[in-house]
């Protein structure tokens, strides 16, 4: 059974490097998307400080539908292009929102969320697998180190998904 080693890093780049290594081990040899998404969300939720929700949204119909996550129950469906998740899905660019109250189209799922990062998950052929969304109760929780670290983590998830 996989057992996550305690994360010892105090600086973000090292923390994300350790986490990416753990994600690689956790997902290795498994291609089931739901299984990998669920374990990935659990790994990150318990490893990163100051987050209150993390999980996936996948394309469904015209918009997105919630996938495996950790945290309080979330909005089930997000219409095309709406919210931070929709912006990430449409632009194919990671969205870092330091203050969700200052993002006009932010969709509140958990009133405790104050900042958010959403990474688009784009397949090699350019199609969208989904988005990875992480929320924090702290203002400006996510910076450029989180953007780079979270994108590297998501690359591990995509590597497993492409097997
Ligand atoms: N805040 C997101 C919606 C998803 S929840 O945070 C889980 C958004 O604006 O897209």
Helix content: 25-40%
- The total domain count is 1
> How much strand?
15-25%
Biggest sheet: strand arrangement: 3-2-1-6-5-4
Order of helices and strands: HHEEEHEEEH
Distance between the termini: 21 Å
Tell how many strands the DSSP assignment holds: 6
Structure classification? alpha+beta
List the helices and strands and how they pair.
Blueprint: H1 12-27, H2 33-47, E1 53-60, E2 63-71, E3 77-78, H3 83-91, E4 95-97, E5 115-122, E6 128-136, H4 144-161
Antiparallel strand pairs: 1-2, 1-6, 2-3, 4-5, 5-6
The structure holds methionine sulfoxide.
Methionine sulfoxide (SME) binds at residues 53, 74-75, 78, 83-85, 106-107, 109, 113, 116, 133, 135.
Give structural attributes:
alpha+beta; globular; 36% helix; 4 helices; Beta-Lactamase
Give a short overview.
This protein has 163 residues and is of the alpha+beta class. It contains four helices and six strands; from the N terminus they run H-H-E-E-E-H-E-E-E-H. The protein has a single domain, classed as Beta-Lactamase, CATH 3.30.450.40.
């Amino acid at each position: 059974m996989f057992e996550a080693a305690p994360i010892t890093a105090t600086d973000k780049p090292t923390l994300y490097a350790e986490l990416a290594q753990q994600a690689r081990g956790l997902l290795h040899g498994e291609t089931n998307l739901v299984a990998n998404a669920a374990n990935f969300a659990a790994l990150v939720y318990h490893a990163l400080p100051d987050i209150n929700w993390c999980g996936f949204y996948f394309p469904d119909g015209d918009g997105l539908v919630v996938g495996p996550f950790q945290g309080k129950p979330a909005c089930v469906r997000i219409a095309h292009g709406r919210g931070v998740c929709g912006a990430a899905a449409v632009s194919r660019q990671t969205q870092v929102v330091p203050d969700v109250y200052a993002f006009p189209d932010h969709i509140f799922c958990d009133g405790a969320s104050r900042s958010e990062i959403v990474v688009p998950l784009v397949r090699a052929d350019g199609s969208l697998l989904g988005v990875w969304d992480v929320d924090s109760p702290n203002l400006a929780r996510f910076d450029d180190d989180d953007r780079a670290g979270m994108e590297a983590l998501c690359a591990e998830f995509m590597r497993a998904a492409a097997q």
